[in-house]
Amino acid sequence: MTKPVPDTVRHSAGESPGHRWQAATRVPDPRLAAFVIGDYQGWREWSAAPVFRPQLPVIMVPVILNLGPGWRIGAPDVPWGAPQAFDSFTAGLHDGIATTWSGGDAACLQINLTPLALHHLARQDMQGLANRTCDLADLLGPDVLDLVARLRGTPDWPARFALVDGWLLPRLAPHAPENEVTWAIRRLRRSHGRAAIGDLAADLGWSRKRLIQRFRTEAGLPPKVIARILRFNRMLALLEDAKGRSLAELADIAGYCDQAHFNRDFRAFARTTPGEYLAARRPMAH
C-alpha cells in the first residue's frame, strides 16, 4: 500500500541587522525517497548587501529552481574572479569548493537529488557534469521552464512542493530505486568513506576498472574521490561538535591515517586549512 503524501510544511525565519530570511521544508512524496535526499527546501531572503556563500563538496546533486533574481556561481571549473550568471541551475558532483553569490534578495526551491536521479533526468554521462554548474533548461529541456513558471505563479509553499512532486514522479518513479553504483555509494556513505574500494568491487563481482568506470558514468566521480569527500564531510560534522578534542583526535575518528593526510584533503576540498576554516566560520542563514 502506498504511503500518503506528507503535507506537513515546516516554516522557520530569522533576522539580523541588514538581513532577513524565511524557509519552508517538506518531505517529498515517499515514492521519491530513493531519488531525493532530505527535504524539499523553500527559501527567501532579503539582504542589504550581496550574499556570498562557499559550497563545500557533498555527495548529492542540488537542483535550484529560481523564484527570484538570478545567481552568480563560481565553481571548481571557473576561476574565482569569473563567476557565471545562472537562473535555475544544477551542479554535478564536485571535488572542490564552489561559491554562490546573490545580489542580496533571493528566492528559490531546492531539491537535493542522488547522482543516479540526475543521471535518469538528464539521460547523459554524469562524468560530463562533474565539477560543472549547468543551466537547468539546457540540461533537462524546456519542460523545466514551465515548472519554474508555475512555481512562480503559485502563492504558497505547500502548493509549490506538490507541483515538484507531480513533476518528478513520472520522470523518476518508473526507474529502479537502486543499482550497483547506488548500492556502493550507500555502503560508502554508511561507513563515512571507510569501506575499501576493492571490497566493493569484489562484492559486486566486478573488476576495480569496471567499478571506476560505472561510477564515472552514473555518479560523475570515481569511488575513491567519493570516499574521500564522505570522510571529509564526516570530519566537518566532528568539527561542529569537537567536545574539546584536538584536530589529530578528530582526524583519527574520521578515519584519516594521520593528520598530514587530513590536512591535505582539507586543503584540496576547502582551499583552506582546518585552522583557517575554524577561525573564519560564521553561522550561516542557509
Explain this structure:
By secondary structure, the protein is α+β, with helices and mostly antiparallel strands. The chain folds into two domains: 10-172, Jelly Rolls, CATH 2.60.120; 180-280, Arc Repressor Mutant, subunit A. It is built from eleven helices and eleven strands. It has helices spanning 115-122, 136-140, 143-152, 157-172, 180-190, 197-204, 208-218, 223-240, 247-254, 259-270, 274-280, and strands spanning 10-16, 19-26, 40-47, 51-55, 61-66, 71-74, 84-86, 89-91, 98-102, 106-113, 133-135. The strands form two sheets. The protein has a seven-stranded antiparallel sheet with strand order 1-2-3-10-5-8-11. Strand 1 (10-16) and strand 2 (19-26) form a beta hairpin. The model has no long low-confidence stretch (mean pLDDT 90).
The radius of gyration computed from the alpha-carbon positions, rounded to a whole number of angstroms, is 19 Å
Please give the domain count: 2
| Highest-level CATH class of the largest domain | Mainly Beta
The largest β sheet comes out as: 7 strands, antiparallel
String of helices and strands = EEEEEEEEEEHEHHHHHHHHHH
Structural class: alpha+beta
Low-pLDDT residue intervals, each spanning 5 or more residues: none
How far do the termini sit from each other?
36 Å
Percent of residues in beta strands? 15-25%
Determine the CATH superfamily of the largest domain. Jelly Rolls
CATH architecture of the largest domain: Sandwich
Shape, please?
globular
* CATH T-level fold name of the largest domain: Jelly Rolls
| Helical segment count | 11
- The order of strands across the largest sheet is 1-2-3-10-5-8-11
The total count of strands amounts to 11
Helical residue percent? 25-40%
